[in-house]
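To assess whether ligand presence alters the predicted conformation, the chain was also submitted together with pyridoxal-5'-phosphate. Input:
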Amino acid sequence: MPVSLDSVRERDRQDPLADFKSHFALPEGVLYLDGNSLGAQPKAAKQAVGETLDQWRDQLIKGWNQGWFDAPERLGNLLAPVIGAQRGEVSVTDNITLNIFKLLGYILGQGKEGRQAVLSEGGNFPTDGYIAQGYCRVSGAEHRFLPEGGNLAEHLDGVAVVVLSQVNYRTGKLRDMATTTKLVHDHGAEIIWDLAHSAGALPIDLNGCGARYAVGCTYKYLNGGPGAPAFLYVHSDHQDKGWQPLSGWHGHASPFAFEADYTPAGDISRFRTGTHSALAYAALEASLDLWSEVDMQALRAKSLAMSDLFRECLSDIFTTHHIDDITPSASERGSQVSLVDSQNGYAIVQALIARGVIGDYREPGLMRFGFTPLCLSFEDVWQAAQHFREVMENGEYQDPQFHVRGAVT
Ligand SMILES: *Cc1c(COP(=O)(O)O)cnc(C)c1O
């Protein structure tokens, strides 16, 4: 290996975030580089969920007045500093897909003259485009795609709202939030930022960038657990502009008045829909308690250092095996390494998983390795690279068992 084990151990000794790893329950013998798909489990989650089960058993319906009902806003306030938002600007609710639908309807409902189109991004995680198309079918708005790599400024005519990811899920490429937000606003349109691959991966300054609307999930970098509720951000100046279209009782101004007609709540709770899972919120809250102690600048520095270390350890292997390293340069990188081998990518990932090194694979040919600075040490990264080297040098990926496709990849 081009980098010595001693040198990475020294880095671990100097790492200001090193202690966080002890707060996560990671299985023995696993090197987990897939925290960008499903984050690891905080040790505190088990107790938190257990306590909520006890509360359900002992308090029954009284639990709703003991923290369950307020969870979307309480957790939103815990999350707000992690993404550069203020108290009262974030709701933890539903999933990204539904939250995009709500924001599309909320923004288009404000009706700007001559602007009907929704622009979503070619090459983005598909649900963002699918739900924009679904919204347009029911509302009659026009849906368009920004071609992958296209110049945004040239596609904003007649556009009311743009849906963009801050970090692309495939390539890991990071957009400049401040300049893109300004560009869209200067064209008279609105932008919904999707933070699925940036929240918990790098520092975000929604307020500082002038962002008005954003969504993101908590089960990836934020360790909320499988199916953990997503979040929705609306700047405080823009929370009183009409209905969101999924107008359910929890978003009503007085949900327990049981009035016949809908009146939206005056604050961020307007973006709720219906009853949420107290158990899911308990696990996520345990994680957000940890996240509220994280220095996001230190997190960013460690994330970039880890992804660079992995690539440095393997650059000769990439050359000899014709693996294309498409990881963006540091200033344009999320928190992942992206490698392309259209012939063997799938099998290489499977061979690594068999060795306990968990990354993931996305068509066509893309191997993704996510670097979660709270759960990984530099030595883990070095060890994962060592396994990768052995899989390639021994030709392990050629074994036919690694070429069989499972349902979830
Ligand atoms: C993971 C991800 C989603 C997931 O959407 P859900 O509705 O929460 O399942 C959406 N958008 C992007 C960009 C993602 O990476």
